[in-house]
TrEMBL record:
Signal peptide: none annotated. The keyword Phosphoprotein applies. Keywords: DNA-binding, Phosphoprotein, Transcription, Transcription regulation, Two-component regulatory system. The modification 4-aspartylphosphate is found at D57. It comes from Salinimonas profundi. Residues 8-131 form the Response regulatory domain. Pfam families: Response_reg. This is Response regulator transcription factor.
Length: 131
């Protein structure tokens, strides 16, 4: 499978410092990053655009990470793979991840995040072409 070097990423993160750091690093790689500070905004953005990967914080102010995850997975369009950030809920077994989704053990490990994003995007189903 061909690995894309430039990815389209949806970042759902309510901590401004973490969001800014991740966004700066990923845009520095030439990636496109759309940012959502709430679960509702993340779901809305995912419904409007195709993403290669969704980076999802487990603790958003209006919805739990699990609620956002399930809302994204229930969409009728191409569903991108999800990489959970700081997923205490996943670690405690509260969320069962679908095949192809992962948890990032350490949100400060940017190299691991980038590597996982590439791997997830490479194994994701191809984007549907609009008619």
């Amino acid at each position: 499978m061909i690995q894309k070097s430039v990815l389209n990423v949806l970042l759902a993160e309510d901590d401004p410092v973490t969001a800014s750091t991740i966004t700066s690093v990923l845009t520095g790689l030439g990636w496109t990053v759309d940012f959502a500070a709430s679960g509702k905004a993340a779901v809305r953005l995912q419904q409007q655009r195709d993403y290669d990967v969704v980076l999802l914080d487990d603790t958003l102010p209006d919805m739990s990470g699990e609620q956002v995850y399930r809302a994204i997975k229930m969409t009728d369009k191409r569903v991108p793979p999800v990489l959970f950030l700081r997923s205490t809920g996943v670690q405690n077994g509260k969320i069962v991840l679908d095949e192809g989704d992962q948890m990032l053990p350490d949100v400060s490990d940017i190299k691991d995040m980038i590597s996982r994003c590439h791997a997830l995007a490479a194994t994701a189903p191809a984007m549907a072409i609009s008619a």
